[in-house]
Amino acid sequence: MLNRYLWPLRGLVLGCALVTFFLTASAHAQTGRFIWQTQIGSAAEEVSLNQMIRCSRGGYVVVGGIRDTTVVFLQRRTFAAKLNEQGVVVWRTILGTGGPNSVAENRSGQLLIASMLGTYTGPIGDSDAQLDLLDPNGQPVWSSPYRSAQLDAIYGLQTANDGQLVGCADLLGAKTVFKMDSLGADIWRTTVPYDNASDGQIVNLLPVPGRGYVVSNYFYNNQTPFGFRGRLVSLNENGAEQTRRRAVFTGRRSAVTPAGDCLFASYQLTKTTAQGDSLWSVQYQYLGSAKAVYPRPDGRIAVLGEYYNPVFRATDLAIAELAPDGALLTDTIFTRHPSDEYALDLTADPAGNYVVCASTTRGTHGAAAGLVFKVRPFSRLLAAPADAGSGTLAGLELWPNPATTDQVQLRGRALAGATATLRDALGRVVRTYSFDATAADAPLSLAGLSPGLYLFTLTAAPTGGGLAIRTWRLIRQ
Q1: SS3 category, 469
Q2: Which of 133, 154, 309, 456 keeps 20 to 30 A from 108, CA to CA?
Q3: DSSP codes, 417-443
């Protein structure tokens, strides 16, 4: 298990936060936002995770690829591991050669895992697939390979609306959706109208209680007009097609809201009806690519994504909380140096704490590893300040932002005795400023600061007492 580390930035509510990972323990961090963190992998193993699900009986199952670095030319193998609510790995099962595509749990707590086989048959470009069913303790129940002279790949496994298992696949070269019982027998199998040239792969299947299933694809058009080209197909509970919708988005990860709408995360975040009609689609500046989405019971939406850190020239993790209409409420960037982190999955425990699954290019042992950590929601840690960008400080503006020169201005009138701090990506204070009663369009020097992301926090004491605090993200170019 990794040590815990955290640098908190006080006074940021309904705004942003910057949380910095270190590889040394901190007494404050152990009582801060992080509840636990677990590393999967060792000095003798290279690990890359692929997906995580929360189990109906508690705990979390992750699937990924693992390679023993002590054995020359040993192929990567698929594995599954179960973590309890405290982040302890309670079992790990190694499956066949190849890599995983998806995992889902049925109503009995059994786990169905889809993987690509490490051996190939047929013409060049062909691939084979395999399904493995494990019991709740990680013991194998059955294994079923899919081998043909055509493309065989299984994606998007999900728990069916009735507790069985559903998935989408390329089988014998056809785009297929299937429903399966715990013995591996098909309850139904349907071919859906997708074409490789115009629709790419079907990658996800979203069960919508009472409304059947929505199938989504992943396709990037590299000819004019460039961009993502999506198609949503909705099926009823028996696998019969109901509707087709063209879209300007694709969805690698998806979730259904408490109201029965669909959320699709793939670079941007899109919300649709169960029939595939788009409600809204947004992309966030500090969440460069949305990789996973979790709809909270209170209607808010949590999104896990990646942020390119210009200071370390590395990829970091980010979590954003959104209103039901997609408006940004909070976001938090997790910085860990020196390594790249890649977002995979996001869920929550019964108390509402977030559980994040990611891969890192450099674990504590120096090799690629999997990371799973539990973190308190941002708004739970910090109490709301007396004034967070409304009332006293509502009319202020930090300009220009991004900053292209050595100077920015705080436009508007600050209070007598107001102070400000500027923190870098490591949470260190790199500038302090003060303002008098007549401060308006106050110039602020950035001379000597490196390009990157900074947090500018203004603190003032209103006449009525208390503190008014407002924070801006400032990009130094």
Answers
A1: strand
A2: 154
A3: T-EEEEE-TTS-EEEEEE--TT-EEEE
